[in-house]
Write a structure and sequence with these properties.
With about 210 residues, this protein is an all-alpha fold. It has helices at about 30-50, 60-65, 70-75, 80-85, 85-100, 105-120, 130-135, 140-160, 170-185, 190-210. Helix 6 (about 105-120) runs antiparallel to helix 10.
Length: about 210
């Protein structure tokens, strides 16, 4: 599942989807850390698109963002993570779609709505060049695949933990994998939103059969 950052104005939120806010406003230290993280991500994406992913090193990004290399690594564990800046946020959104549902709210429509939002984010204007870079870069393709597997396992764990569903572990893992793959398939379709609906009709049928 590809959920990269998208080019933004400096220090602006990345993309159209924003993470749920905490119950109290973040303090000055947290705001400063968030702004630094965003500056690093925006700088990295700009350099990658201008020069090519393989032509830009971590030190190049740190120097351009005016931070130490150690500071960069305190926010991002790897060079690949700079491209997928919203990785953790999107994983949390998927699992929270399960755990944050109202009592007896149907699962599959809730997941469909979340995938719709993710597809809108990642098919927004300016995203084509990013996905072309990912498709052409082996390290990014492999990183994306590891993300998909992790997302699917996290989602399956959340579904299996809900006593309302009473499905086998295999059923939960299968549906979770279908949901995660639905995003990638829809993103590549000529009409991504229609593709989400088509795929989720099949997912719902499989869920009911389980």
């Amino acid at each position: 599942m590809t959920v990269p950052t998208t080019p933004t104005e400096p220090n602006s939120p990345t993309g159209s989807a924003t993470p749920p806010g905490p119950s109290t406003p973040p303090g000055r230290r947290e705001r400063k850390k968030a702004a630094t993280r965003q500056r690093i991500a925006d700088t990295a994406m700009r350099l990658f698109l201008e020069r090519g992913y393989d032509s830009v090193g971590i030190r190049d990004v740190a120097a351009e963002a005016d931070v130490a290399v150690t500071t960069l690594f305190s926010h991002f564990a790897s060079k690949e993570a700079l491209v997928f800046e919203q990785d953790d946020h999107f994983e949390q959104r998927l699992t929270q779609t399960v755990t944050g549902r109202t009592p007896h709210e149907p699962l599959i429509p809730a997941l469909r709505d979340e995938v719709h939002a993710m597809v809108r984010h990642c098919t927004a204007d300016g995203s084509a060049a990013i996905y072309r870079m990912i498709d052409e870069t082996r390290a990014l393709r492999e990183y994306e695949e590891s993300m998909r597997l992790r997302y699917a396992e996290s989602l399956a764990t959340a579904i299996a933990a809900d006593p309302e569903f009473a499905r086998t572990t295999t059923a939960c893992r299968t549906i979770a994998r279908f949901v995660v793959d639905a995003y990638a398939l829809a993103r590549e379709a000529s009409d991504p939103q229609a593709a989400v609906d088509e795929i989720f009709r099949m997912i719902e049928a499989a869920w009911d059969a389980a």
